[in-house]
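Hey L., structure's done. Input below.
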Amino acid sequence: MIAATDPRLTAVLGAITADAAALGLHWLYDADRLKTLQAGGPLAFREPDAANYAGVPGYFAHAGKHAGENSFYGETCRLMLTHLARHGRFDRLAYQKEWLAHFGPGGTYTGYADHPTRNLVIRLLGCATPEDYPAVSGSDDDQLPALECVPALVAWHRGSRGELIDTVLQAVAVTHDHPLARDAATLAAHALADVIAGMPLPEALSAAASTAGTMLKPLLSEALAMPRLDVVAAAARFGMPCRLHQGLPLLFHIARHAVNYREAVEANLLAGGDSCGRSLLLGALVATRDALHDGTVQEDPGIPLCWLTRVQGVASCIRDAETVLARIR
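Output:
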């Protein structure tokens, strides 16, 4: 297990590993099908297979990908980490150039891309020069991809909390221009920063929920008040899809009650729907909790080594994370 290590490194590894683990069953919306699949063994790192989606609600988005690859959510998280390793800070223009080189025509990424990603590619390509990129705003979108940048930015930051939130909001604005996206990213950054600083995870989640706006606050409070881990009930209550007011309460419920990283990732997959969208923040929160409380609050803590080694390109991710950490020590 990866537990007793720098919590900032663990947060990033927890995020990308959870996303890769979810890829094979991403956007499968049938609870009964997921229970049947779980009866055959762990849900994490299943090979993407259209047969798993046949005859039930779902969208098979990742044909051509293989177990261990990241979704476009995880790719964006990794891109931000590489950006911070290269520049030592968030630079909007440089990031937009790197983002387009990755997700744009002829870029290094291949696979499904969501509406905000496709929309941003079109807008950036429409600029006369790259110097016009900073004037391009993100989409009016309130879905979970707004949180993609949070784990890497929180792990990198060493300044004041206000400076962290300002940077997170600048980064979110590249892809998302929606009040709920800003609210969710702000409270997500607070929660992860508090856990990295040593606050117990339940307290960090409650504190973050208390800062939420009028839509998210009651939902997050309700999710945290559920007495035990029951992802099927929580998914039925809050919803499986991609909207922030659905996914964020569900991942808070899992983070609050899962005893360790493995249980959190498996529970997220069993919840169905946009499991990749929930995975980055969930994986970062629980892996960090395990790193700081190794063996004291839960059994079998940390990221399973057999999972971490299955993440494609994990060595480059670790190198980038170590470069980032070296800059802030």
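The chain has one domain: 7-328. The domain at 7-328 is CATH 1.10.4080.10 (ADP-ribosylglycohydrolase fold).

-- N.
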